[in-house]
């Protein structure tokens, strides 16, 4: 099989149940990664979008925040602040903050007070 790369040549481990997504270059968790290759490109300039979604969640409502041009560690910290402001759980996945429940107004106001140009979609 000429042209096929082995798993070790491409980085091998891409996900760990302990740390989540792994960097293929330095093999650290993406949150702790210092490689420029593993960092996602900043989103297109514009307002931060806040919307409600129920798809694929068994009818449960989730508020999503997308479009923040922040480093992964800063995004996690902001997600924690927004979740505690709403008194709800949630997570940060692939640059999108997810907060359980419909908290669009509260999150939009919190982002505006922090200096982010946020709008509800």
Q: Give the beta-strand count.
A: 7
Q: Helix-strand pattern, N to C?
A: HEEEEHEEHE
Q: Provide a count of the helices.
A: 3
Query: What would the average pLDDT be, to the nearest integer?
Result: 80
CATH architecture label name of the largest domain: 2-Layer Sandwich
CATH superfamily of the largest domain: SUI1-like domain
Major sheet summary line = 5 strands, mixed
* Strand residue content: 15-25%
The name CATH uses for the topology of the largest domain is Translation Initiation Factor Eif1
Q: What number of structural domains do the residues give?
A: 2
For the largest sheet, list the strands in their spatial order: 5-6-4-3-7
Distance between the termini: 48 Å
Question: What is the name of the CATH class of the largest domain?
Answer: Alpha Beta
What does this structure look like?
Helices cover 24% and strands 22% of the residues. The model has no long low-confidence stretch (mean pLDDT 80). It has two domains: 11-40, no CATH class; 48-120, SUI1-like domain (Translation Initiation Factor Eif1, 2-Layer Sandwich). The protein has helices at residues 7-10, 72-86, 104-113, and strands at 15-16, 20-21, 48-53, 62-66, 90-93, 96-100, 118-120. The longest helix is centred in the middle third of the chain and has 15 residues, at 72-86. By secondary structure, the protein is α+β, with helices and mostly antiparallel strands. The termini are far apart. The chain has three helices and seven strands. The relative contact order is 0.15. A hairpin with a 3-residue loop joins strand 1 and strand 2. The strands form two sheets. A five-stranded mixed sheet has the order 5-6-4-3-7, covered by helices on one side. The chain has a two-stranded antiparallel ribbon with strand order 1-2.
């Amino acid at each position: 099989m000429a042209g096929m790369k082995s798993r070790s040549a491409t980085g091998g481990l891409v996900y760990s149940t302990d740390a989540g997504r792994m960097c293929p270059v330095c093999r650290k968790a993406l949150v702790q990664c210092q490689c420029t290759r593993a960092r996602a490109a900043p989103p297109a300039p514009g307002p931060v979008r806040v919307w409600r979604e129920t798809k694929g969640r068994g009818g449960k409502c989730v508020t999503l925040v997308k479009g923040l041009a922040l480093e992964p560690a800063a995004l996690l910290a902001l997600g924690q602040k927004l979740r505690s402001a709403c008194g709800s759980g949630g997570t940060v996945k692939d640059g999108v903050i997810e907060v359980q429940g419909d908290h669009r107004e509260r999150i939009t106001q919190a982002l505006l007070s922090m200096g982010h140009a946020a709008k509800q979609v």
